[in-house]
Amino acid sequence: MTWAGVLVLAAGTYAMKAAGPLALGARRLPARAHELTTLLAVTLLGALIALSTFASGRHLALDARAAGLGAAAVAIALRAPFVVVVAVAAAVAALLRAVA
């Protein structure tokens, strides 16, 4: 993903957040709509992680990035602190890239 893509997504996110108060005014969203908008951010983040981990251009790539993500998932399952999760993922990816 290029910086232009990141900036477009950031601008879109900001516009969506700003549009809510402008459109609704003092009214509140229904509870179900509020839950869905909360889940939308999590879904978008998951999609970005999947694309940056498993995509190489227009092709599927299973490489050191995927192994790093798997190692991070194991560290999370073991309830490791965030810094440890990031360090484990980076170390596994770096080791696999060094070997290959």
Task: Explain what you see.
The chain has 100 residues and is mostly helical. The chain folds into 2 domains: 1-60, no CATH class; 62-100, no CATH class. Helices cover 78% and strands 4% of the residues. The chain is built from 4 helices and 2 strands; from the N terminus they run ααββαα. It has helices at 3-24, 31-54, 64-77, 82-99; strands spanning 55-56, 59-60. It has a two-stranded antiparallel ribbon. Strand 1 (55-56) and strand 2 (59-60) form a beta hairpin. The longest helix is centred in the middle third of the chain and has 24 residues, at 31-54. It is elongated. The model has no long low-confidence stretch (mean pLDDT 88).
Present the secondary structure layout:
Blueprint: H1 3-24, H2 31-54, E1 55-56, E2 59-60, H3 64-77, H4 82-99
Antiparallel strand pairs: 1-2
Helix pairs in contact: 3-4
